[in-house]
Queue: 3 jobs
Job 1
Amino acid sequence: MKPQEYIRKRFFPHLWCAGCGHGTVLNALLRSVDELEISKEDIVMVSGIGCSARMAGYADFHTMHTLHGRALAFATGVKMSRPELQLLVPMGDGDALAIGGNHFLHAARRNIDMTAIILNNRIYGMTGGQFSPLSGAGISATTAPWTSIDPAFDAMKLAQAAGASFAARTTTFHVHELQKYFTRAIQHKGFSVVEVFSQCPTYFGRKNKAGEAPEMLQTFKDSTAKLGSKQLEENPQLIPRGIFVEQEKREYGEAYAQLCEQAREQRSPKRRYGKEAPRC
Amino acid sequence: MGSQKWQILIESGWCKSCGICVAFCPVKAIVLNVEGKAMAAKEGRCTGCTLCERLCPDLAIQIQSLEATA
C-alpha cells in the first residue's frame, strides 16, 4: 500500500512550505507503519506545537495535538492507560529539547515504550525563524542576526545519557535509511528516539544561505557519514548517522504492571479477609 | 511506448514546485512544467526506483508498475 492510504486527504495539500523536509519524514513514517502492518486503530500519534506538530493532523491514526513541548507527557498518559497501543510522537527540535527538554529527559529515563521523532531543522519555523538549542554556534536566525554563540545539544548523546534504549539519527536525504530506522524504532520495546535532519528552506535556508531544498538535501548527503564507516573515520568533522544505541532494558509499562500485580497479591482482600480480590 | 514499465503519477494540486524530484531523479525523468509543477517528461526512462515518491515532501508522486496492471 502507498503512504497516501494513511493520510487525511481532505487536509492536502498540507501547510508545510515548498521543500520542507517534514513531509518526507511523514512519508517515510507511513511507509514504515505499512511495512509493519500495524492497524491504524492501534496507533496514537501525539504532537506538541510547531511545524512538526502539524503531522498529527495529516496522519490518519488516533491523533492528539497537545501543548508545546508536552507531547511526551500526554503520550505517557495514553501509554499508561492503554499499553497495547503504539505511540508515535513527532516533535520539532525546539519542541523536544527546549520547551519539552525536561519531558524528553524523563520519558527517556523511564524507558517508556514509545517512538519519539525529533524533526531537527535547527530553527523555529512556525514562529518566524528563531534559533533553537539544536541550531549551534555560527548559525544565523532572526533572533541571532550576528549569528548564534550557543553551542548545540547532541540529541543522540542526550538521549543515551538520559536512558533511551534506542537512538538513531538520519536525514531526509537518506529516505531508505529513514524508513528502516522508523521500523526498528517502532519494533523496539522501550523509549526510542529517531532524530531526523529535516530541511527548512524558508527560514534556516534563507538565513544561512543554504540554498533551496535540493541544495539543502545535498548538504545533508555531503556533511554526514554512517557510523563505523571509513568515510567517518577519515573525516571526523562529518556528522555521524546510524543507530547509536539499541539495548534491552526494563520497560516502564511492564514494570508498572508487575508492581500492580505484586501489590494486588500482597494487599488483596482475599488474603486479608478471605474474599475475592476486586480488580484494580 | 511499448518498453515503458513504470508510470509516474503526479498530484499537481499537491505539488509545491520545490524541485526535489527533478534534482534527484537518477534518470532525469521528471521536469517542472510551465506552471512550475512536477511533470513526467521521460516516463520511458523511469526505472521504478521510487526515489522521487519517497523524497517528495508533498506526497504528490506515486510510481505505478505498468506490468502489474497489464
Note: Chain A has twelve helices and eight strands.
Job 2
Amino acid sequence: MRWLACELHTHTNHSDGKQTLEELTAGARRLGFDCIALTDHNTMSGLKDRERIESETGLTIIPGMEWTTFYGHMVTVGSMSLAAADWRRATPGNIAEGVAEVHRLGGLAGLAHPYRIGNPVCTGCYWEFEIQDWREIDYIEVWSKTFAPIQADNHRAFGLWTELLNAGVRIAATSGRDWHEQTETDDPLSVTYLGLEERSDEPLTVAAAAMAALGAGRASVTIGPLLTMEVRSEAGRAYGIGEAVPAGANGFEARAQILFSVRQGLWELEPQPFRLLITGSAGTIAERTIEPADGDYALPFPPDASRPLWIRAELWGVVRGASVRIAFTNAIYFD
Amino acid sequence: MLIDRMQTLKPEDSRSHIRCPFQLEQSASKMFIHFSYGPKLLDDRQQARELMEECVERYIEPERRSLVLGSMDRYFPLSNLITVSVDDPETYRGACHRHDPEQQLFLGESASSPGLTKGRLPSGLWSVTLSVHSIVTDTCEYRLRIWTEDPTTDQSAFS
C-alpha cells in the first residue's frame, strides 16, 4: 500500500482564493504533499492548466468543486465533469439529488466543515441540509483549517462521524485546510493520507487510485506521523482500513504502524511518550504508550471484549500545551 | 446592451437566486458582464450585534455561546454577498464566488475571467444568475450589465 499525502480542500483566484494554481501547487510541494484536490467554489475553470501543472510539479491534482450553497458547503471531487451538477438547485430537503448527480458524474461527495459558523459570518458554511440516508454521503471533512484538533467546530464534526459509525453507517473522514492563500503559519497542518492499492491488472492514474481509496475509506488523518492499522483474525487473515471483517472471523489483534519519518522536517512534535489506542463502538479496547520513532505495535483485543461494529486507531499527545488527537485512522468494520 | 438592470434587495432576499436570462441573437467573440452592488458593509454596530446574537443562537452549541459572543467583534464588519454564475444555451460556464462588490468580467473564445470557462459563445438563450447569499444591510442595490463585442465591428467595450 502506498500512502499518498493529500490536501483535499483548496481554492484559487478562480473563486475567492488569493493564489493561482501554480502558487498553490508550489506551496503544496514545499509542504510535502503528493496530491491536492482543487475545490474552488462553484467553478472548475481553475483546472484549465491542470495537466501542464501536474507534469511540471509532479503533484497530482484531483479535480473538484465545492458546492457553495445557502444551506451548506459540499466538497465534490474526482471527475472533470462535476460542474455539470447544478449547485443552485440545492434546497434544504433535496441534497440527496445533488449527491446522486455527483455520483452519476463519477465523483464523490463530502460535507465540508459542517459546523463552521454560518450566515451572515460565513454564508452557507454550517451544514443545514437534511440527510435522510447517510450512506449516500462519501465522507465528512472532520478536520478543517490549521491546528485542526483543537477547533471546537471540528470536535463537533468528529463527534458526528463517530455517532454515524456507531449507528452502523460506513463513512470516511478527512481533513481539509480550506486553503485560500500562501501565508506562513506555525500552526500544525493536517494531512489526509489515502491508501493506494497496488493493482497490476488495471493500472489507474494516481488521481483515480486516490479517489478509489477515499471511496473505500482507506484514509488516515494526521498533523504529523502516519498512523495505519490492520486487524488480524485468529485464522491469520488481515483486514485493512476501510475493510470489513466478515462475520465468523474471531480472535482479533490490531496491528498499528506509525511512521514518524514521513514528511521529515516539515512538522514537529515535542518528544514525549505518545498514547496509541484502539477505540470504537465498544469503547477503547487497547492502549499503550509509544516512543516517537517508526514502529509496529501489536494490540490484542482483550479476551472478554465484545465484537465491535467498528474500530479505529488514534494517537494522542500534548501539542502546544493541549492534549489532542494527533492522528486517527478511518474505520475497520465488523460484519 | 443585452441586460441593464438595477434592483434593490432586502435582508429577506437572502438565500435566493435571481435568474437573468437573455437571448444572444448571434454568436459573439466576447461577452462582458459588469456587476456591482452596495453597500457592501454593515456599519451599524448595534444591528450587527443583533444579527450575531441570532447567528450564535443558531450555530454555536449552548456551552460556547457566551465565549463566541464575547469575541464577536472579530467577525465585524458583517457584509453582503452576491455572486455571479453563467449558463450558455448548452452548459454551465462557471461562477465568480468572491467578495468584491464590483466585478468586471468577460467570457471569450480563448480566455475568460477567473471563475468563468473560456470557449465559444453560441447564440441562444443565456442566463446570468445572481446568488444572494446574504444581505445584512436594510437595503442593497445592485446593477448588472451585459453586452457583447460584435466580431464584425470590433468595438472595444472597455474603451
Note: The helical segments of chain A are 21-30, 50-57, 95-104, 152-166, 206-215.
Job 3
Amino acid sequence: MDDLVNSETRVVVQGITGSMGSRHTETMLEYGTRIVAGVRPGAEGQEVHGVPVYNTVKTAVEKHDANTSILFVPPTAVKQGAIEAITAGIKLLVLVSEHIPIQDTMELLEHARMHGARIIGPNTAGMIAPWERCKIGFVPNKYFIPGPISAATRSGTLMYEIISRITLLGIGQSICVGAGGDSIVGTRFAELLKIYEKDPKTELSILIGEVGGTQEEEAAALVKSGAVVKPVLAYIAGRSAPKGKRMGHAGALISGDTGTMESKLRAFADAEVPVAKTPEELIQMVNAKLRR
Amino acid sequence: MRIQEDEAKAILSQYGIRSPDSITTSTPEEAEAYFGASNGEVVIKPLGLKKRGKAGLVIFAKDAREAVTATKAMIGKSVDGTQIKRVLISEKIPIAKEFYAAITIDYSLGVPVLVLSQEGGIEIEETAKASPEKVKKVPISTIAGPDIQRINDAIADFPITEKQVLLRTILSMYEIFRKYDAETVEINPIALDKDGSLTAIDAFIDVNDDSLQRHPELARLNERSEPLTECEKRMREQGWSYIDLDGDIGIICSGAGLSMATLDLIQAHGGKPANFLDMAQVDGEGLYKSLAIMSERKGVRAALVHLFAGLNKCDDMASGVKRFVSEGGQKFPIVVRMVGNREDEGTAVLKEVGIENVKSLEGAVARVVEASKYG
C-alpha cells in the first residue's frame, strides 16, 4: 500500500469483545474510522458497538471486504492472530501489544513480507489520519486536526505532548504514525518518510525519535540520498539515558556503540535535518517553518 | 536475561556442542581440589560479568597454589558495580584454531542472522567495523529455517577439514536460539583441536525478556542475576518500568518517550533525575502508590509528576496526589504537570491540597530543579 489509509480502508478489530478491544472500537468509531467487523473465536453472531463479530478474520474479509486489522489480544497470542489476518488477505495490520516475544515478531513479519502486508508496531498507539477521519489505534481523538504535518514517532505519549501543542498553534496533521517502541518494528521511520513524501497533503514531516536502534540513522540516510525533498525536522529523546538500561521501551536500549545519541545527531547533521534539543524547540521550529 | 557461561555451556552440551571439563565454584578449596583432579593447567574466569578478557580477569593457573590464589583474589571483587560471586574453572585445552560463531538478530532487518568469523576471541562489533571482510553474515528465515547451501558457502573457506562438524554446530546453535527464545547465542571462541573436533571455549545466551514467561525452566537462573534496589523491586511489582538513577529528583511519568524527554529536560536545566519511571496506564490509585514508594526512597529531594492524560483522566490522577498529600505522607516538594483529558477538573483537585498544576512543561521542570536545590 502506498498510502496507509484512504477511503477504501475497512477495518476489522481482532479481540473486539475484550475490554481494550471494545473500548477502543468505540473511540475509533466516534472518530470516524470505518470498522466493518470484529473477530473473536466463539463469539460469532454478537455485536460490539453495532459492529458484527465473527469467529475468523477470513469470514470478516469475505463478508465485509476488510483490508485492515488492529489486534487487541495478549502479547503471546499476537503471532497467531497476525498470521491469521495476513493469510486471510489483510494488507495493513496495527499491533498495539507490548511485550510480544521477539521471535514471534520476526516470524509474523516474515509472513507479512511474503504476503505483501504492512505491519505498524508492535508496541504502538497506532496511527491517525485526520483528513480521512481514520484512526487505527488509541491515540486520543481530540488533539488531532487536519493539516500539513506528518509525524513518525517511537513513543505514543511523547507524540501526544508534541502534537497537542502544535495543534494549539492551529497547525494540523495529515498522518501520524507510532512506529512502535520495540527493537523490531514492521514499518520504520525511513519507510514512513517515503509515505509522507508521496502524500499530497504533507508539507513537513517530523520525526520523534529516541535512543536505541538505527531507525533515525536510516531516516537520515534516506534524506541525504535525495529521496525525500519535503522538509524534515526531528527531536530525539534520551540524551540522559544511561548505557545498557532498557528505558521503558525494548527498543530504547543503547548497547555498545549502537543507538547512541551521538550517532543519531551525527547522521541528522550529515543529512542537514535540524534536530530540536527540546520538545518546545521542535514546536517552535514547526511553527517557524509553516508560518507564511 | 543473560544465561552465563556455565549454564550456557550446559545447554550447548545438551545439543551436542562440547566444552572443556569444568566446575563452578565460589571457594578456593574447591579450586584446589579441582586442580588436583585435572591433568594440567586450568583457566579461571569470573561469572556474571560482561567483559572479562579485556579487564584482565581470565587467569591461567599452572599449579594448585596459583589456582587457589587466583580464585581467592577474584571472589568478592567488584567490577563496574557487579560483585563476583562465582568463578568457572576449566581445563585448558590445546587449540589449533579459533573461530567466532553466533546466531543473533539483525534488529533493523528484523531477522535472525548467523555471524561467523575465522578470528575467534574477538570483539565482534569492533571487528565488523574495522575489517568487515573478516565477518560473514547469513540471514535466516524463521519460517523456512537455516539455508544449508548458504551456510556451506559461508564456511567454505574455513580451515577445517570436516565442514560437517561446523555446520552441525551452527544448526544446533540455531535450534537453541529458537528453543530458548534467544536474542543471541554466541560461542566465542569456538576452538578447533588437532583431531578436527570443535569445543566451545566461551559462550553465553541472551534470552529475550519478553519471552521469559514461556520459559519457566529459566526462572532459576533469573534469580541469580543482578539484584534490584528496594525501590526498583517495589515499583516493578506494580508492573511499571522503573530504573534507579543517581540523582535527587524523583520522576513520576507515563509513557517511555515522554519519561525520557522529561529526564532530558531536567538534566538540561541542571537537575539530576533520581529515576526513570514509565507507569503506562496510570490512575489515581497508581499515582498514590508511586508517590508512597517514592517517598521511602532515600536521596529524593523533590519530585516531578508529569502525566499526559490521553485515555485516562486528570481529575482521577489528581485524586491520587490529593490523597497522598492529605494523609501527610509528603516528605519533599512535589511539582505537578498534568495535561489532557479533564485537565481543568484535575487542576481544581490539586488546588484543594495547595498544589498548582503547572501549565508549561519547561516551567514545571525549572520549578522542580529549583526545589531540589533549595527545598
Note: The longest strand of chain A covers residues 146-153.
